Amino acid sequence: MMENPYTLLFGVEPEQVISRLSQSSVIIDSFERDHPVQQVYMITGIRGCGKTVFMTEIANRLKKNDKWIVLELNPETDLLEGLASKLSSENSLAAIFKNANINLSLLGFGVEISGITPITNIETAITKMLEAIQKKGKRVLITIDEVSNTRNMRIFASAYQIFVRQKLPVFLLMTGLYENVQELQNEKSMTFLYRAPKVELRPLNLDSIAKSYVRTLSVDQRSGIKMAHLTKGYSFAFQVLGYFSWEVGGNYNAVLDDYRQYLEDYVYEKLWSELSKTDQTVAYAIARSSTGKVSDIMADLNMEKNYFSNYRSRLLKRGLLSGEPRGYLSFTLPMFAEFVISKCRDDF
């Protein structure tokens, strides 16, 4: 019996993936130019929108080219030490560093090179390694998942900025929630990150989702389309609905309660807890609006336009709302309006 091709786990590349070729190609084309315009991209979006899978897809495509050295760093550790360690442990680079007389023994990497003074500064060591890599026509891609404004991240970003100014062949992909990316970019010393392009992951293509369900679950086209609309293009929802439907032979109607409960327990409760009380009040007004018109929602809240606009903007930037068509608001997540109403019915 075939294994379930969908997954309930965050950050794991599932068998069934809806590719974002247009967005990933922009990044790859930019990185692979002879004279790259950008050497860093920030991938952001709502929790569960597929940021990690998207970054992994790009990393895997570049790995196929032996010109690229692809390294993943843990944001909870000393990132510079992690970079130096991973570079020095790459089998394809060991001979390059030895021939370049880079002695990293005092830093705990590699072997001592007789007659060569050991390097004692981690940034100097990385610079020397990147210079040696550059001479061999290779490039380094660093990926960091779920960044936030930590001391480790600030130290690393400051050093990375120097590497870029020195025109070293090092490239950076980072993922993060909107609020975490914004906080990091707003650091006074992180001006280069503020200018770095952000790739905001939008909903997946509904037609592609429908085709995936038809192909893997053996449902008819009409059912595939209905299932796709039930996900609203939300990447995690695509996986969850597919997973539960697979387990019952494609009968998605039989798993809708499980589908909704799983989204609420593993995503929506967390998203809700991160909203301020006023954010929640505005969300409740949107959820119970029969028209979705901004003017009607403001009237229901008895809020002035300028005041309301601040909270609308916050919810839009978090990826919870869609402002299309102009003058209307709706939630981007499936069954989120029902969740909000159930949370607020007794409180407002």
What structural category do the secondary elements indicate?
A: alpha/beta
CATH class of the largest domain: Alpha Beta
CATH superfamily caption of the largest domain: P-loop containing nucleotide triphosphate hydrolases
Approximately what portion of the residues adopt beta-strand conformation?
A: 5-15%
**What name is given to the CATH topology of the largest domain?**
Rossmann fold
CATH architecture of the largest domain: 3-Layer(aba) Sandwich
Helix and strand element order: HEHEHHHEHEHHEHHHHHHHEEH
Number of helices: 16
The outline comes out as globular
Number of strands: 7
Task: List low-pLDDT spans.
Answer: none
Query: Percentage of helical residues?
Result: 40-55%
Oligomer: single chain
What does this entry show, briefly?
Helices cover 52% and strands 9% of the residues. The chain is α/β, with parallel strands linked by helices and 348 residues long. The protein has 3 domains: 21-79 and 122-200, P-loop containing nucleotide triphosphate hydrolases (Rossmann fold); 206-271, no CATH class; 275-344, Arc Repressor Mutant, subunit A.
